[in-house]
Amino acid sequence: MAGMEQKKRKKKRRKKKMSGAAKFGIGVLIAAGILLMLALIVLIAYFWMDSHGKSAFAEKQEAVPEQMQQAASSSDVSGNDADDALEAGSIRYNGKTYAYKSDVLTFLCMGIDKTGEVKASKDLYRGGQADALFLAVLDPGDKKINIIGINRDTMTEIKTFDPNGLYAGKEVAQIALAHAYGEGLEESCENTVEAVSNLFYGLPIHGYCALNMSVISTINDAVGGVEVTIPESLAGVGMKINGKGYGYNWSAGDRIHLQGEEAYVYIKYRDTKVAQSADERLIRQKTYLQGFVNQAKAAVKQDMTLPLKLYTQVLPYMVTDISAEEAVYLAGQALSYSFDENDIYTMEGHVEMGEVFEEFYQDDTALYELILKIFYDEVTPPGTASGS
């Protein structure tokens, strides 16, 4: 009898052990199920944001650059032939007809000479200058990304305001100063958007993003860093930006994988005592952008949620009218678009020394033709074989 009792107790213990293991297994399955559900929710939210971002941009793609058409019927751009019979968005230039690509999306990216989080300026003349200005163009027809760098010293009409914030008229000044007139937030950005749009013959700009340039380090590291070749202007040790000293033993021609503050120094630094240093910095920023875009595309392929994570992370340092939904949509689109060094353009022109600072004067004809190249398609007349 005692032996039988022992066997019963062992069976009960076995049952208890099996029951505990089963419970543990069920717990693991439940945890895995919860994680799977969370992953599905993230994916559903991502695609929902992608869809809504696409719809939001579709509503913005209605305007056409009217000043391009007006210039075609005036003497503003040499070589143009007037034709009042053309449809809106179409122009004739040097005997050829061009139609505006109504599906392109154009964004103004601004790097502001400020550090830390974005704050409203109490002084309406201290909204921060736009030291970096780029137009990013997404062309769904050609499936490519084009980027146009704008010299911060470009002389053009900008809106000015008095110390009380009242509109004081327009004056010709460096385009970087358009952002300085304002509180450093939406007003400053909208003032710059208007100045850039007018400079580009009324080109529609579908969104803007202004970043305090110190956050570049965060964005750079989020995509895994960016490789660049050090130019002559950055060779040596010891640089100061906004009163802070940086020391890097860089030599001209070195191939560097930029990390942290290195990226900030690379795109921000310029020696104002050297002639045309803004132009040199723009070229450097151009090479950085090429590496960054390709690195960002690779990083997003590894983590589709990266655009949303990064958007949230940099929001305190950014002023933008691009929503999170729109940012997710744009990132998804950019993955399938081509981009290389030939897709980055800078404006042609010449530099003159003003009373105090350098002034860049663009070549109007070259700018007009650049806009035609990126934003227009040549229209083949009816009955004419293409390429003839």
UniProtKB/TrEMBL annotation:
| Superkingdom of the source species | Bacteria
Q: Which InterPro entries match?
A: LytR/CpsA/Psr_CW_biosynth, LytR_CpsA_psr
Q: Which residues cross the membrane?
A: 21-49
Q: Which residues form a coiled coil?
A: none
Tell me yes or no: is Membrane among this UniProt entry's keywords. yes
- Give the record's keywords alphabetically: Membrane, Transmembrane, Transmembrane helix
Enumerate composition-biased segments (Polar residues): 67-78
Q: Name one Pfam family in it.
A: LytR_cpsA_psr
Identify the residues that the record assigns to the Cell envelope-related transcriptional attenuator domain, covering every copy. 130-297
Alphabetized Gene3D superfamilies for the sequence: LCP protein
Residue ranges of region Disordered?
60-80
**Presence of keyword Transport:** no
Family the entry assigns:
Belongs to the LytR/CpsA/Psr (LCP) family.
Name of the protein in its database record: LytR family transcriptional regulator
Native source species: Eisenbergiella porci
